Automatic annotation (TrEMBL):
This is SHC SH2 domain-containing protein. PANTHER family: SHC SH2 DOMAIN-BINDING PROTEIN 1 (PTHR14695:SF8), SHC SH2-DOMAIN BINDING PROTEIN 1-RELATED (PTHR14695). It comes from the Eukaryota. Residues 1-76 form the SHC SH2 domain.
Amino acid sequence: YYDILEDRVPAGLVAEYHSTLALCSEKFQEFSSLRSGLDSDSESEQDNISMVEGLRMYEQLEALKRKLRIIENPLL
């Protein structure tokens, strides 16, 4: 955070970080709404498709979080 304020980080990297963070927030909102819409007792095909979609979204979220961690600490 302070590195950004003191201009020690390239502007392109800061822009990429902010866009990735915004995308991560958007995906999390989509994932949360999908998860809240699932009925835990239902065996319908639509719920099964939604669960697969939820797993795909979860993997995307994890990839975005890894990217953010690497930007925050490139030595990881």
